[in-house]
Each structure stands twice: as C-alpha cells, then as structure tokens.
Design brief:
The chain is mainly alpha-helical.
Length: 282
Amino acid sequence: MNTKLIAVLATGLIACAASAQAEKGSPPPPERSPLSGPRVPDRTGKPTLVQRSADGKVVRLDEWPALAAVRKLKLDEKTQAAVTKVEVEQAQAMDKFLSGNLPAVAALANPFQSGDAKAGLAGVRKLRQDHPVFAERELLLQRMSELLPKEQQTELRLMVEEYWNALVQEEAEAAKARGEKSSPGKVASAEALRMLGQDIKASYERVIGQRVKDFDSLIKALGLTPEQESRVRRIADDSFARAKGNPEKVNKVDVFWKIWRELDARQRDALFEHIKREQGEK
C-alpha cells in the first residue's frame, strides 16, 4: 500500500475510534492503562517504552506496546519460544485475513479520498466488527502475560501502563492548551486503531512484497493489453531506478498499488485469486 493510502486508512481508523468512543457502551481496548488505579511506580533504571523526540513528544511505537515490552524482558528459552509462537500465529492470521479480503481493504480508502468520511468510517467499523483477527491483536497484553512468570507479568504490565499513561498525559496537556477536555478512553482507542493500521500495513508488505514473486508470469496471467503492460513495466522500472538498482530496497507494496490502479475489474479479480492461491500454498 503506498504511503498516501496508508495515511488515509490510518486516519480513518483513528477517526473511527473517536466516533466509536462517543457511542454509548463503547468499551476501551484491553491494552488501555487503568488510569483510575494506582499510579505507576518510579521506573528509574527499569526498561521503558517511553521515548521522547527532540520536541519532548512521546515517540509512538510501530508495534503493539505488549510486543515492544516483552522484547525488553530476559526470557528463558521455553518462554521465548511460546512468545514467538503467538507472534507468528497472529501475523499469519492477519496475512490470511488480508489475502482473503484484499478488495474490501483496498476499497476502504476510496470514500476517505473522495471526502465521504461517514461512509469510510462505516466501512472501517464493519471491518473491525466482522473479523476476529482484530480483536486478537487488541488482546496481546493478556496473551503475552499468560506466558510469563509472575514477576515478569508485573514488569510487562508496568511498562505498558507507563506508555499509555504518557500518551494520555500528553494528550491531556494538548487538549488543555486548546481549551478542551481530553478523554483517556478516546486516546487509548485511537492509539489501538492506529496500531491496527500498522498491522494492516505490515501484512501488506508480507503478503504482497513476498507472494508476488514472478513478475513476468504474473503479467501474463493477468492478460494485460499491450498498453497496460507498457505502463505496468514502466512502474516497475521506475521503482527499481529509485531504489538505485537494489531489489531489496524496491518498495514492492507501492509498486503493487500503482499496478492495481491500472487493472480492470476482471484483472483485479485474477490478481486477487493469484495472491490467495500463493498464500494458501505458503
């Protein structure tokens, strides 16, 4: 997925969180810090997830806090194997979801790009409700904690709580400066959905960057017209040139989405089936 499309999707996910939080009975995600409980103790000298940029703002993680926290613990071999198993299983579940719902996810960005935020939010909300893979990602703190000895369970929880508290405090201060009130639940929900957006992006990179292996055979399978084939090859060549000839640096996801826009409905269906088939053969 290209950068613009990722940004649109992430914006939609976060906006959806803000909208959902306003609905009666909308629960906060399980990884949210219980701010009504005791304060996180002094963490000086302890591992932390809280890093700050030059302007003092909290640096957002590019993975779920529970995953980042568990990497900072010294795990024995058996526990590390169990943690890795959960990570791999959830990544595979996300990839399976994506490869089976590629057109639906691709279509998610369309209403946001056309300015119809209401339709976009409805699509995001339905996607989240219909697919349990998203709920599983939001239960990572619980899943990881169950694998650890009691002392490390506490350390994991404290690191995650410290991170959430830092985000909530930062937003509270920003809201106060704007003359507004901040909602801890809204902050937590928005951050959780931002992470789901990151999950989708990572899954695109795995499924599309690795599954579409033989470019020439794929072009033949799609039945492109000579004009389409010329444009598609130019897209690939331009991307290769920008990567200075290094195939490892080619943005395969960006290439995929540029090519996707060149295809008609039949060809997109053929590409979709190709990706599903390769994912099933993995």
